[in-house]
Structure formats: C-alpha cells, structure tokens
Amino acid sequence: MIETLFLLIAGLLGGAVNSLAGGGSFIVFPALLFVGVPPVIANASNTYAALPGYVSGTVGYWHAMAKHKDRLVLYAIMAAVFGYVGAELLLVVSDELFSLVVPWLMGFAVLLFIFGNRINGLVASLHGGRRGMKVLGQALLMAFLAGVCVYGGFFNAGLGILLLAFLATAGMSDIHAMNGLKLYISAIVALVAVARFALSESIDWYHGSIALVGVVIGGYLAAKYAHHIPTQWIRMAVIVYGVFMTGYFFWGAYA
Fold first, then answer.
1. How many whole angstroms separate alpha carbon 124 and alpha carbon 132?
2. DSSP tally for the chain: helices H, then strands E
3. Distance separating alpha carbons of residues 194 and 209, to the nearest angstrom
4. What is the pLDDT of residue 64?
5. Burial, 56: exposed, middle or buried (Cβ in 10 Å; 0-12, 13-18, 19+)?
6. d(CA 66, CA 63)
7. Which of the 8 DSSP states describes residue 200?
8. Whether 193 contacts 86, CB under 8 Å
C-alpha cells in the first residue's frame, strides 16, 4: 500500500513536471528503483509510463504540425527503426552494468535539461534561415536523428531536448511545430520500445501502471492550472532534484 501511494505520488509529480517544465523522468525512474524494481526493468517501465503523455501531447499539437506533414513519414520510420535499436541495446545490458551507466545517463540528461535552451538557441542561430539539410547534408542530419532515437529507446530522460536540437538543426524555428514533432517522434520511439520490452517481459506492469496513472492525472491537472504556477520555480526544483539524484546514483554505483 505504501509502495502504491509512493509511486502514485511520484507519477503525479512527474506528470505535472513534464507538463510545466519537462524532466518528469528524473522523478518517476528513481521512484521505480526505490520500490525495488530492477534497473533495466525500471527504465523500461518508465518509458511505458511516459508513453500516454507523448501521445496526448502529439494530438494537442497536431494542428501546429500540419505544414510539416512532408516530414512525418520519414521521421516515423527513423523513430521506429532506431528506437527499436535502442530498446534492443537496453535488453542486452545486465542490471549490474546498467547500474554503472545510469549515473552518467542521468548526469547527461540533467545537463541537457539545464543547458537545453542555450543549446537549441545556438543551433538555431547557426542554422536559422537555412535548411539544415543543405548545410550538413541529408545523411548527416539523419545520422543525428538516428542517434537521438537510439538514445530515446535506451534511456528516455532528456530525449525531448535532443529532439528540439535536431529539429533546430533541420532548419525549423516554429516552437509549436517543433514541440509537436518532438512529441510525435518521442511517441513512436516509446511505442516501439514499449512493444519490444513487453515481448521480452521487461516491463513491471503493476508498478509501471501505477506510475502511468499518476503521470496522466498529474499532467492533466498541471496543464489545467499551469497559469497559477511559476514555471521557473518548477524548473529550478527539477534541476536541484536531478543533480541530487545524479550524485546519489554515482555514490551508489561507485562508492
């Protein structure tokens, strides 16, 4: 009962944080570990819990993506293929090895969260007004997307920031369309990964579903009352928590 309540609260907070500032995986993933879910399965279950938010977000931004329909098929194929590759990589990693990798992944995701806006702004300034495909070439641009999708299939946290950087590199500047495409690609990566994890029985459906319910409710409530909550405060709290959890995982893995 205590575990159920703990995960539900973690899901509520994670869903709310995702709606307001991003970074909900910093809450949900550690919560799954704390209730005893093995690292690899906790990571897979976190992706499962995040999936509904990606889908609902994609639907919400669909109108903003209308003028970029020519990208949807290619991006879907890339997300499906390389998201699957990332999921396969996760499944061949042992819990012991993944426990050693987690602190580095968490640290990387936290840095992306902290500096994501600056990274995206820099990328946009370098490529703004020109199509990234003409500058870097189609192959290099798709290689960037492939790497991001592999990362997303392997470890969900920080995926959105990497996708925004990719979309800026691809020459986009409309933030609403970029957010829509970010969620669209994330949804396909997560859907393929969750399907693969389910086939290998690598999802803790009980604990993951509790977190999922919390994420959905928290995301809805936060979106409804977002104008009452200073986003910057939420962002700072997520950064402090993310840094603390990264230090905690480093201490647990290497101390």
1. 10
2. 11, 0
3. 13
4. 84
5. middle
6. 5
7. T
8. yes
Token reading at 223: 């979106």
User: What is the pLDDT averaged over residues 153-159?
Assistant: 88
Closest CA to 24 of 148, 123, 156: 156
Kindly write down the DSSP assignment for every residue of 52-91, as one continuous string. Answer: HHHHHHHHHTGGGGGGGHHHHHHHHHHHHHHHHHHHHHHH
CA-based Rg of the chain, rounded to a whole angstrom?
A: 17
pLDDT tens by residue, 78-126: 999 999 999 999 999 999 999 898 889 888 888 877 776 676 666 656 5
Q: Distance between CA 250 and CA 196 in Å, rounded?
A: 29
- Per the listing, tokens 């699957």 go with 84
Token reading at 35: 């209730």
Question: DSSP character for 37?
Answer: -
How many angstroms separate the CA atoms of 200 and 70, rounded? Answer: 34
213 CB contacts (<8 Å, ≥6 apart)? Answer: 8, 11
68-87 pLDDT, tens per residue? 888 999 999 999 999 999 99
Backbone angles phi, psi at 161, to 5 degrees: -65, -40
CA angle 188, 219, 165 (to 5 degrees): 50
Mean pLDDT of 38-42: 94
Q: How far apart are CA 74 and CA 133, in angstroms?
A: 14
